[in-house]
Structures are given as C-alpha cells and as structure tokens.
Specification:
This protein is α/β, with parallel strands linked by helices and 268 residues long. It folds into two domains: 162 residues, HUPs (Rossmann fold, 3-Layer(aba) Sandwich), CATH 3.40.50; 91 residues, Alpha-Beta Plaits, CATH 3.30.70. It is built from ten helices and seven strands. It has a four-stranded parallel sheet, sandwiched between helices. A three-stranded mixed sheet has the order 5-6-7, covered by helices on one side. Helix 4 packs parallel to helix 5. The longest helix is centred in the middle third of the chain and has 19 residues.
Length: 268
C-alpha cells in the first residue's frame, strides 16, 4: 500500500474510533472529502452542519446542500451574523479566532442537541504552515481534525477525492470573505458584498483560482501567473476594470506575484 492510501487508512481508523460525528461542512475540497469518507464508513451516524452568513457566497451554501442531497447525508443549515461578534467589524489580527470560536460553539450546541459527542472540521496538514488563529479555537473547543491527524495534505485530498469521483476534487480553494481585508481595516456588509461580487465576476470570466484583496478603495486581484495572459487582453482587462469600478472600487490592480493563500498575513 502506498503512503497516500496508508494516510487514508489512518483517517478511516480515526473516524471509526469516533463512532458518530457532526462535521462542519463548507462544501470545500477538504470538508467534502471528510464528509464523504465519514458517511461511507458511519452512515446515519454522520451529520453535516453548514453555517450561512454574509461571509460566504450563496453559491457555497447551495453547493453544500446539493452535495448532501446527492450523497443522501443529513444536513443542518443555520444562519449566523458575524457582526454580532464583539470586535469582528474592527478586523483585528485574531479576527479568524473570534469567528471560528463563535461558529464552532454553535455547531457544538447542535451536536449536543443531536446527542452526538464529537464535532470535526476539515483543516489539513498544509494549514499548520501559515498564520491560522482559527486553529487555536479548534484546539480550545476540543474539535477533531481528522485530516490533519492522518497527515493528509491538500494535494493528497484532491487525489483521493478524484478517486472517489467527487466533483470537488478540482474545486478552487476558498476562504471566508473577511480574509480579503487588511488587518485593522473595518469590515462592513457593503464591503463584503463588494468582494463577493468582484470574485463572482472573475469566476464568470473563467479564472480557476483567485482572490480580490481590498485595500481601501483599491481592489488587488490575485490570479495564477499562468492565467495572466488571459486577463491582460484589452477586452478582458477593460471589462474587469469597468465591472469592479461599477461595484465601487476606485482603482483595480493586478498583483504581479500571483495568487497566494494567506497573502494578507505578510504584514504580521
């Protein structure tokens, strides 16, 4: 057995030991693979829980619901408002911790109501190499991280998802919209909507992996360097510039360093 499938076997052993579990499900690559694997092993002892808020595009919630319906997994969807979290709108350096603690506390309550002893989330081994204050909340609340425990990386998860025939295997990585803002720059529902609409336009134009980072009135677009030629045609660049200015940005720029996860952490 190769190393990849040894890791999968380790994951399955971890899940079997838990017995029954609520999984925080975002519809992303990692949580979809975790949910599918857990449900295949444990059946109805697995429940998916998804939070819907202004921090996530509606398409993500819709995809989560469709995934669970297709896989016949019990799915609980609840509404949450991050602006009720003290300190959130000021966007401090521990903003992710504040949000994650609030979110996971709510999911723990749902698990308790369903008489399920464990909650799991989908962080992978690669997530330990960046500034991730949300993982502090995971540890403090006793949330399980089976993918990390099994030593699975993002690339591992994509490969195994492809083997399972999951439509998420090549889905672009996504993070909550609050991660588009410079730390200390206040977040509003309006600016979250601007980020969402700007990234929706990049999706519609066919870009595979992207972020629109917000610096006041400036939109800084991150895409893969291999897709620079696609953007830098007169038609596409002009269209994107007009669309983002209509959304509310004064200046629209391209980051020549290309797409990077956690690029806002450079200032820390």
């Amino acid at each position: 057995m190769d190393i990849l499938h040894q890791k999968k076997q380790h994951l399955e052993a971890c899940l079997k030991e838990l017995g029954s579990i609520v999984i925080a499900f975002s519809s992303g690559v990692d949580s979809a693979f975790l949910l599918k694997t857990a449900h295949d092993l444990l059946g109805d002892k697995v429940i998916a829980v998804t939070a819907h808020s202004c921090l996530f595009p509606k398409r993500e919630t819709d995809e989560a619901a469709a995934f669970c319906e297709r896989e016949q997994i019990r799915h609980i969807l609840f509404e949450t408002d991050p602006f009720t979290i003290e300190g959130f709108r000021q966007n401090p350096k521990n903003r992710c911790y504040l949000c994650k603690y609030d979110l996971l506390t709510r999911i723990l309550q749902i698990a308790k109501e369903q008489n399920i002893p464990y909650v799991a989330e989908g962080s992978n081994l690669d997530d330990t190499g960046d500034y991730r204050p949300g993982l502090t909340a995971v540890a403090e609340l006793g949330i399980k991280s089976p993918l990390r425990e099994a030593g699975l990386t993002k690339e591992d998860i994509r490969q195994l998802s492809k083997e399972l025939g999951l439509p998420t295997w090549n889905k672009p990585s996504f993070a909550c919209l609050a991660s588009r803002f410079v730390y200390g720059e206040p977040i509003t529902k309006e600016t979250l909507s601007m980020a969402d609409r700007a990234e929706q336009k990049l999706l519609e134009l066919g870009f595979s992996q992207f972020r629109v980072r917000i610096h006041g009135c400036i939109a800084r677009i991150e895409i893969l360097p291999s897709e620079f030629p696609k953007l830098l045609t007169q038609d596409t660049a002009g269209l994107l510039n007009r669309c983002l200015q209509e959304i509310g940005f004064t200046y629209v720029t391209l980051d020549l360093g290309g797409y990077k996860t956690g690029s806002m952490n450079k200032t820390l």
